[in-house]
Write a structure and sequence with these properties.
Mean pLDDT is about 85; it is low at about 1-25 and about 100-115. This protein is mainly beta and about 325 residues long. The protein folds into two domains: about 1-25 and about 215-315, Immunoglobulin-like; about 30-215, Jelly Rolls. The strands form seven sheets. It has a four-stranded antiparallel β-sheet, with no helix packed on it. It has a four-stranded antiparallel β-sheet with strand order 16-15-19-20. Strands 2-9-5 form a three-stranded antiparallel β-sheet, with no helix packed on it. The chain starts with 15 loop residues before the first helix and ends in an 8-residue tail after the last strand. The protein has helices at about 15-20, 165-175, 200-205, and strands at about 30-40, 45-55, 60, 65-75, 80-90, 105, 115, 120-125, 130-140, 145-155, 210-215, 220-225, 235, 240-245, 250-255, 265-270, 275-280, 285, 290-295, 300-305, 305-310. Helices cover about 5% and strands about 35% of the residues. The structure holds calcium ion (2 copies). One calcium ion (CA) binds near residues 190, 194, 197 and 198.
Length: about 325
């Protein structure tokens, strides 16, 4: 089936079968938990990526954490993106001063194969604080324009399970001295992504110890068996069917019938990421595109196997 897709959306595109099977496609992403597309629309201008960090997206035991953000051009773009500034909701800079040795950009394999220089952001979410917003400004090095990707990652998470604990510290310590290009170099163990694994990476991991990211670069969808009358074959005489699934906590989940047979319906995933949604079926086949947009602005998308409305469905007595 032909599916419209844009360059920058392909990273999290989900196959229809996976969507139904409730599989997670987030392999090879390492400690990157959100990839947000951006575009510098006018030569020399800055594009601003706005993210809203809500408390249900993180466990931050000490009230603060360091997140990394790296930018890279999309496949067809000639832009050389640079982060020019990052401010919080009160317009205060939250970028960490560059560590000694930083600036030696390394390949951000998870964003693209192109070079990306990360910025480290000090983010704060104190007890009782529901959300905190940040704006990342991105410019082209040569004052041009074009499409880019911003990848948000968890520094210190060496094994890519989106939490920082002792396992990560041990892994980083075991690789001290490794440089980019060497066999023992590990991109995810290079907390500050400066191309070498040293004490600065251990320190960063220590400062992030206990931090857990609950952003899920995935969305699942399941037709409630109770909505599927007669045989379990996705053919039903229920006009209103219910879907259940999991997405990033707080994300907006939208079901759109691809031929516009019905009006799109939306709901929000709860604090644990679960959602339920009721869709009204049109006669015959209903083919839904499912989108989930999280507070990072990241949209992931997939097609659902068709659900068919029919009077007298097979197996109904
Ligand atoms: Ca980890
Ligand atoms: Ca490093």
């Amino acid at each position: 089936m032909e599916r419209p897709r844009k360059n920058h959306q392909c990273l999290f595109e989900i196959q229809e079968a996976q969507l139904e099977r409730r599989d997670v496609p987030a392999s090879n992403l390492g400690n990157t938990f959100a990839i947000v597309p951006g575009e510098i629309t006018k030569a020399g201008d800055a594009a601003v990526i706005k993210v809203n960090l809500t408390s249900d997206l993180f466990t931050i035991p000490k009230g603060r954490a360091t997140l990394g953000v790296a930018v890279a051009a999309t496949t067809a773009s000639t832009v050389q993106p640079l982060i020019s500034k990052v401010v919080n909701g009160t317009n205060k800079s939250v970028v960490q001063p560059a560590a000694p040795g930083a600036g030696k950009a390394v390949s951000a394999a998870v964003v693209t194969t192109k070079t990306a220089t990360p910025s480290l952001l000090n983010v704060q979410l104190n007890k009782g604080q529901k959300s905190s917003s940040y704006s990342v400004s991105v410019k082209d090095k040569a004052s041009g324009k074009g499409n880019f990707l911003s990848g948000f990652y968890l520094p210190g998470d060496a094994n890519g399970d989106l939490k920082v604990d002792k396992t990560d510290l041990t892994a980083i310590k075991s690789k001290i001295g490794a440089k980019v290009g060497a066999a023992n170099y590990d991109f995810n163990a290079d907390s500050n992504r400066d191309g070498q694994i040293d004490n600065a990476d251990v320190k960063l991991a220590q400062s992030n110890q206990g931090v857990v990211i609950k952003v899920k670069p995935m969305i699942t969808a399941r037709l409630d068996p109770a909505s599927d009358t007669g045989t379990a074959d996705r053919i039903t005489d229920n006009r209103n069917v219910q879907f259940q699934g999991v997405a990033t906590p707080g994300s907006t989940v939208t079901y759109t019938e691809v031929d516009s047979k019905t009006t799109p319906v939306s709901t929000k995933a709860d604090a644990t990421g679960n959602y339920t949604l009721t869709a009204s079926l049109a006669d015959g086949n209903n083919l839904y595109r499912v989108n989930a947009t999280d507070s990072f602005g990241q949209t992931i998308s997939g097609l659902l196997s068709p659900v068919t409305y029919k009077t007298n469905p097979p197996g109904k007595v």
